[in-house]
Amino acid sequence: MTAFVTLAGVYSTSNFGAERSRDQDLMTTSRALDQFLSSVEKRAFKIAQLGLRNDDDALDAVQDSMMKLVQSYASRDAAEWRPLFYRILANRIRDMQRRRTVRGRIMAWLPAREDEEESDPIAEAPSHDPGPAKRLELDEAIGVLEIAVAELPPRQQEAFLLRNLEGLDVSETASAMGCSEGSVKTHYFRALANLRARLGEVF
Amino acid sequence: MTEDFEKRTQEVLEESAGRLDGRTRSRLTQARHAALAQLAQPERHWWRAYIPAGAAAAVAVLAVVIWSGGPLGPSPTGPVASPVDDLELLADVEAQDFVDDGEDLEFYEWAAGEAES
């Protein structure tokens, strides 16, 4: 009986130890993921926003990508998270673009609804904050660049944003886009050429 | 020249990403927390989702086997119970308890034999 109690005690202590260690691992992973996701979320949103041209869709795409990364790749090495996350995001954006194209084709057959998309006068009101001249100049640059980037062909846009905004290297971009490094270089070069041809005077 | 252009576009895009409004930033934070909350949930095994379907399939197979007289066919001697009786016996929870609890199963079998003769 005493031996049994001792054995049970040893088992429960070791079990408790294992559980505690697992909790600590979980906490460390959670903290690292939190740090990683907060470091990329704004740029990820910008990439999704330019790809989808809709804030709500962009937020959905970023949230889905975060969920998928945590669900499937939390146990991977932290150095792999960035290309994995952007690969998930790129796929998600492509899916949503495809779905939207199909929906657009279907909707073209349906009669238009007049009550759709009611505008919000407050959201659309011009800002009265004058701001410094520099800020105005930057505002203009942002507007012009974002329009030009949004109008790039999808693969060029992906390559440009992942390389230029997110700062991924060629190999990470290739991994995120699911293509060869040569393709990344071609897409990126063409994107730059397109943007320069369009923005040369402004930039 | 190209590097200047790249640098300029990078600065502009960075500035734009840093200027997100409060609502968007708040929704991104919520999305991050929702994603991280998954870590705290217990691990789910994909095969557990198939347990009810597997159990139903097993019951169906059992029913078919019993209905068709079992893999060895009906016993040539002794009383032949109808398949419906077998199913009723299997489904009868009280009968199961009776069998589980009773240690004198042989006595009941003997008594049943006596009653028939």
Tally the beta strands of chain B: 0
Class computed from helices, strands and strand pairing of chain A: mainly alpha
Order of SSEs of chain A: HHHHHHHH
Beta-strand segment tally of chain A: 0
Unreliable runs of chain B: none
Low-confidence stretches of chain A: none
Return the average pLDDT of chain B rounded to an integer: 76
Principal-axis shape of chain B equals rod-shaped
Shape of chain A: globular
Mean pLDDT of chain A: 84
Range of helix content of chain B: over 70%
What is the end-to-end distance of chain A? Answer: 84 Å
Strand content of chain B: under 5%
Cα Rg of chain B: 34 Å
| Structural domains of chain A: how many | 2
Main beta sheet of chain B, described?
A: none
The quaternary structure here is heterodimer
Radius of gyration of chain A: 24 Å
Distance between the termini of chain B: 109 Å
Topology summary:
The complex is a heterodimer of chains A (203) and B (117).
Chain A lengths: L1 H51 L2 H19 L4 H30 L13 H4 L8 H18 L3 H12 L4 H8 L3 H19 L4
Helix pairs in contact in A: 1-2, 1-3, 2-3, 3-7, 5-8, 6-7, 6-8, 7-8
Chain B lengths: L1 H17 L3 H19 L10 H17 L15 H9 L1 H9 L3 H12 L1
Tell me about this structure.
The complex is a heterodimer of chains A (203) and B (117). Helices cover 79% and strands 0% of the residues of chain A. With 203 residues, chain A is mostly helical. Chain A folds into two domains: 1-111, no CATH class; 132-203, Winged helix-like DNA-binding domain superfamily/Winged helix DNA-binding domain (Arc Repressor Mutant, subunit A), CATH 1.10.10. The model of chain A has no long low-confidence stretch (mean pLDDT 84). With 117 residues, chain B is mostly helical. In chain B, 71% of the residues lie in helices and 0% in strands. Chain B is built from six helices and no strands. Chain B has helices spanning 2-18, 22-40, 51-67, 83-91, 93-101, 105-116. Chain B is rod-shaped. Chains A and B meet through helix 1, helix 2, helix 5, helix 6 and helix 8 of A and helix 1 and helix 2 of B.
